[in-house]
Each structure stands twice: as structure tokens, then as C-alpha cells.
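If it is no trouble, can you show me the amino acids of a protein and the C-alpha cells describing how it folds?
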Amino acid sequence: MSKKLLVIGAHSADFVWRAGGTIALTTSQGGSATVIALSYGERGESGELWKDPGQTVENVKRIRHEQANEAANILGAEFRCWDLGDYPLNITDEIMTQLADLFREMEPHIVLTHTPVDPFNPDHPVACQAVQKARLLASGAGVASAFKNITPPDLYFFEPHQPELCEFNPNTFVDITPVMELKRKAMGVMQAQSYLQTYYTELASRRGNHARRISGMEEVKHAEALQRTLPWVVKSL
């Protein structure tokens, strides 16, 4: 059975930097990937675009959508933006219900989102809290006839920009060596935050070094670090 990956970010470019390789790897192996951006990041994540004279919020959103959609296509994923606004990102009860319904509709095997702590970005923890709550609502016990329950998907946090200050514990390393060029290409599309391209290319190399040292797998050149949030349940070790 092919894996269904759901990636939920606070802003439209978050998935590219933090999980682009994992997404491309999933789709290249026959799985599917859906990216949900809760906002376009039009206020706090689009500094390069606001340098243009006469820039407008509507135009920034348009550009961000085009860039994110193109990047998702490169990675083999479907992109959707809920356009909830950023800085601050607010999750209403209605949106919470919509998010839980998304989980029930998709029944993902794996979910990726932000860490619960990020002292540098007010929207990331809000997105994380909403994702965790939606997962519980969609998979929690209840009256069988009242609403659909799904098998609890695995939940991972992707790496924040400054992990040591976000309580990020990298306990899973994904070898993205075979798809690193796709991640580079997708990052290259995100011109609103072009300054991040070099950083995340270097980070993939550093995480590849860590993965090699941990595993002894010399073929790993690039990796993405994730934090698995739930224990493994196994039949044997």
C-alpha cells in the first residue's frame, strides 16, 4: 500500500525548506503527498516581494501561490493554501473542524508539521497545536455513528530554523540523497525567500553527515532531520 503523506505548514514556503526532500522521496517511491499551507505568509515571510514599489497584499499572495504550487509540482505533491492570514495566524473553531475533517477525508499515514516551540515565529507553534488537536479529533474514540474515526497517523515535527532553541530532538533522519536535486530545484522557485536556499542546502549536507555517522551508511550524502513524536509499536526488536 502506497504511503499518504500530509504536510501542514503555517506559511506557503515552509514545506519546501523543511520537508522538500521527504516529500520528493515519498512521491518518487509511489506514495502521495498533500501540502496544506495555512497562510501565504504574505506579511511576515515575503520580505523580498515587499521591496517592489507599489506592492499589494493581493499580488504578494498571488506570487506566493504560484511559487508554492510550482515547487509542489516539482516534488510531486498537491498544494493547497487556506489563506488564513499570518503574523498572527489564528485558528478558529470552524477552521479546527475543517482541519479534523481533512484528516478524516485523507486518512494520511504520516503527518509532518512544525515544532510546538519556536521563539522566533509566532505562527509555527499555533500550526503545530492545531495539527495535533486535529489528529486527535479525527482518530479519537467516540460514538461510531457520530463521526468517522481514522487510524492514528504517525506524527513528525520537521526541523525548525534554529533547532537548539526550539526543543527539537532529531531522532529520525531521512536519506534524501536520491532526490536532493529536486529539492534544490523546488527551493530555487521560492524567490520571496531566496536567502534561505543556501542555508537549507548546507543543512541537508550537515544532516547527511550526521546520518552517516549514526548509521554507517556511506551512501547518504544529504538528509532531512525529523522528530518522531510517538513510540514505535513492534512485534519484535
